[in-house]
């Protein structure tokens, strides 16, 4: 009896294993017998954003089925992608993030997209962002740019009616707000502050190769970063911004803003919906970051680019998918679902009114983000920069000391 | 009193009477079958150990001597270069210092508080189960989520939850809990203590309930005070629990990542930066698997040394108490 029960259990288990194996074999099939193709696609946008885009593509291309998967940005997406690339299980089409583009491009994991018709409407800045030594490897259809989000009601309360366009005017505005008993400004110091990125972008705008020169040893962080760091540090040395900002996360800063406890914050367009839902009556607007010589660059970057896996067997289907994603219909759907500032030449994005003042700079590519402009060791340098900037804010080291520490970390990282 | 039980004799498998060689062979076979059965039970654990620990450790050791990264998927031997880079990293010493401070701080404070808490929770009072649940609750949610919540509670500005309470109660100005390096370190340690205290108190409670009540009755008859009973009965008999609890606290403390990462992001500066944060940054974010493996090997040796030291000290203490 025992033996027969055991044998039956064994047979049942074997049947389950066989059925499971067959099911898995079915999952791994690239295409159906009817000539249809299953194209895998891995993104950090979720299904709410990409679902309608994929549905529209599949309606236009009934022979292609998209197998969609996603992981949240940035670290989780990158680690998942890198693991899949190394194990040979990466999707046919994936998004190439600026944070690890050099790893993917130099490792030969993506196809060169130069000369493809779908690259024609892509903005020059977006193409440059995802270019390697011999071509472009990511098709980026959008960019983002941060701004100083201003609570117009609090500015009016302090008697201010106009947002300044230069740095001195910004310091003066912060002083006026402070005298009126209003906390003037918060910028997230648990990442490289947006204000500093804007100041760096402004100081490098004459020469976009500065970062490459630093990494090739032709110049140093000390030489290039110190002036922008000194300017940024005036906010703290003049007592206009609380040093407590080093202990505040992004969510806490938004919370302070929507509750009217701070007049201005630095953030990106992804928080527009959050601000509108949390403070529906607030009169606010995104303003360009003031620079010493007037409004200059914004902190920002090209959005991730769609890349085709160099190991894919479905190049034609992948090409068709990218053709759709860069078409006016595909870009319109993506803009509608994500509220992204699309930069393609074939579609004018529909955006929230509050972004009006920063959209032209974003579409023109006047955006800079240090941590993705670095060609290598981005994460190690990013951590070092954040730590040292926090120490500068707390008065423990000088702006020059921050830049020197960055040079030392780069040297350490290069061994 | 000792009880003696005679084991039933095993009947010889063949033959008519118990012959010595046949009995020995039978006993040996029986022992082999029994030990084979034991090994069958060990097998799942052994498989898990080999697949999830032994193989990854050997792989990490191998990769630590290579330049394996996402850019270099075909690893090449680089000798001790990865190890050399670890000891040249200026942030590593700060990370090591805070990791040790967190580990020692949480281990000491949790041990000092959890034992008296367990003694209190072992007494009979109204709502005892509710109080036990309340203390155990912080062990349930993800510590990463708790870190985010505590970020709002310990916010260094005036609108932070704790600062609002301090202002309302005592008119105290905002305390820079997370923006002052020393206070940030203290805050991370205290939140770490809060999150682990209840769990370890329940562990001690389980051991307390196994102490025979006769011992306390005899001590009471002999006129021992509660304090004397605690130090001469409870504490010595809890020594094995202290060993287990401290081992878990030490290993969890040395591996800590999620709490400082979500509460302070490792700042201000490198004040709350930990060893695991550095390993994860190198290995996952930076995809320098060779470098991260070297870091993991060094870290494993440090953790092993600390744990062995703790076990040696604990065994010596247990020996003295016996």
Q: What does this 3D model show about the protein?
A:
The complex is a heterodimer of chains A (415) and B (322). The radius of gyration of chain A is 25 Å and the shape is globular. In chain A, α8 (194-204) crosses α10. Helices cover 48% and strands 12% of the residues of chain A. Chain A is α/β, with parallel strands linked by helices and 415 residues long. Chain A has a four-stranded mixed sheet. In chain A, strands 11-4-9-12 form a four-stranded mixed sheet. Chain A has a four-stranded mixed sheet with strand order 6-7-5-8. Chain A has 18 helices and twelve strands. Chain B is mainly α and 322 residues long. Chain B has a single domain (91-321), classed as MetI-like (MetI-like fold), CATH 1.10.3720. Helix content of chain B is 71%, strand content 0%. Chain B is built from 13 helices and no strands. Chain B has helices at 20-63, 81-88, 90-122, 128-136, 143-153, 161-170, 181-208, 213-221, 226-237, 239-254, 258-263, 275-285, 289-321. The longest helix of chain B has 44 residues, at 20-63. The interface between A and B is large, with 44 and 40 residues.
């Amino acid at each position: 009896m025992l033996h027969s029960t055991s044998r039956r259990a064994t047979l049942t288990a074997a049947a389950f294993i066989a059925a499971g194996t067959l099911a898995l074999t079915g999952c791994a099939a690239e295409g159906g017998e009817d000539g249809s193709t299953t194209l895998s696609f891995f993104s950090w946008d979720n299904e709410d954003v990409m679902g309608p885009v994929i549905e529209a593509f599949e309606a236009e291309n009934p022979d292609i089925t998209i197998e969609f998967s996603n992981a949240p940005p940035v670290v989780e997406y990158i680690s998942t992608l890198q693991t899949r690339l190394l194990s040979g299980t990466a999707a046919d089409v994936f998004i190439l993030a600026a944070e690890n583009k050099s790893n993917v491009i130099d490792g030969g994991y993506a196809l060169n997209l130069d000369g493809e018709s779908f690259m024609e409407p892509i903005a020059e800045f977006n193409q440059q962002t995802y270019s390697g030594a011999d071509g472009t490897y990511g098709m980026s259809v959008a960019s983002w740019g941060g701004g100083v989000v201003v609570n117009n009601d609090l500015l009016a309360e302090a008697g201010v009616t106009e947002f300044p366009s230069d740095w001195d005017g910004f310091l003066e505005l912060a002083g006026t707000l402070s005298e009126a008993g209003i906390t003037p400004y918060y910028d997230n110091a648990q990442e490289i502050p947006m204000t500093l990125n804007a100041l760096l972008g402004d100081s490098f705008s004459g020469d976009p190769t500065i970062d490459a020169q630093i990494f090739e040893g032709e110049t140093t962080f000390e030489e290039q970063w110190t002036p922008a760091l000194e300017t940024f540090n005036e906010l703290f040395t003049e007592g206009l911004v609380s040093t407590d900002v080093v202990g505040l996360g992004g969510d806490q800063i938004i919370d302070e803003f929507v509750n009217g406890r701070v007049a201005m914050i630095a953030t990106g367009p992804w928080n527009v919906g959050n601000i509108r839902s949390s403070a529906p009556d607030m009169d606010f607007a995104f303003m360009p970051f003031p620079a010493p010589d007037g409004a200059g660059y914004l902190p920002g970057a090209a959005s991730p680019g769609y890349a085709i896996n160099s190991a894919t067997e479905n190049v034609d289907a992948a090409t068709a998918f990218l053709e759709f994603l860069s078409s006016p219909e595909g870009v319109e759907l993506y803009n509608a679902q994500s509220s992204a500032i699309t930069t393609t030449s074939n579609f004018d994005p529909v955006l929230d009114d509050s972004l009006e003042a920063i959209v032209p700079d974003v579409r023109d590519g006047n955006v800079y983000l240090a941590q993705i402009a670095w060609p290598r060791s981005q994460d190690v340098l990013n951590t070092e920069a954040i730590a040292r900037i926090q120490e500068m804010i707390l008065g423990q080291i000088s702006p020059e000391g921050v830049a020197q520490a960055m040079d030392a970390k780069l040297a350490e990282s290069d061994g | 009193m000792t009880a003696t039980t005679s084991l039933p004799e095993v009947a010889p498998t063949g033959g008519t009477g118990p012959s010595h060689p046949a009995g020995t062979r039978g006993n040996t076979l029986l022992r082999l079958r029994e030990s084979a059965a034991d090994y069958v039970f060990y097998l799942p654990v052994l498989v898990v150990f080999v697949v999830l620990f032994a193989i990854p450790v050997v792989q990490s050791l191998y990769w630590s001597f290579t330049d394996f990264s996402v850019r270099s998927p075909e690893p090449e031997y680089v000798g001790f270069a990865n190890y050399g880079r670890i000891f040249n990293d200026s942030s590593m010493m700060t990370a090591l210092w805070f990791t040790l401070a967190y580990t020692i701080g949480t281990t000491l404070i949790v041990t000092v508080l959890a034992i008296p808490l367990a003694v209190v929770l072992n007494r009979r009072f109204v709502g005892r189960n509710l109080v036990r649940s309340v203390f155990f609750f912080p062990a349930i949610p993800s510590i990463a989520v708790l870190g985010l919540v505590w970020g709002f509670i310990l916010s260094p500005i005036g609108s932070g939850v704790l600062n609002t309470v301090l202002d309302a109660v005592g008119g105290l100005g905002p305390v820079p809990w997370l923006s002052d390096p020393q206070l940030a370190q203290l805050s991370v340690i205290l939140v770490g203590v809060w999150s682990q205290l209840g769990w370890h108190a329940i562990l001690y409670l389980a051991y307390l309930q196994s102490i025979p009540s006769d011992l306390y009755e005899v001590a009471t008859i002999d006129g021992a005070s509660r304090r004397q009973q605690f130090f001469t009965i409870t504490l010595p008999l809890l020594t094995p629990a202290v060993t287990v609890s401290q081992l878990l606290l030490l290993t969890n403390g040395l591996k800590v990542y999620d709490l400082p990462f979500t509460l302070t992001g490792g700042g201000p500066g490198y004040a709350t930066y930990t060893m695991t944060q550095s390993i994860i940054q190198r290995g996952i974010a930076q995809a320098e698997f060779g470098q991260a493996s070297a870091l993991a090997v060094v870290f494993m040796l440090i953790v092993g040394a600390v744990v062995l030291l703790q076990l040696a000290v604990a065994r010596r203490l247990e020996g003295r108490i016996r």
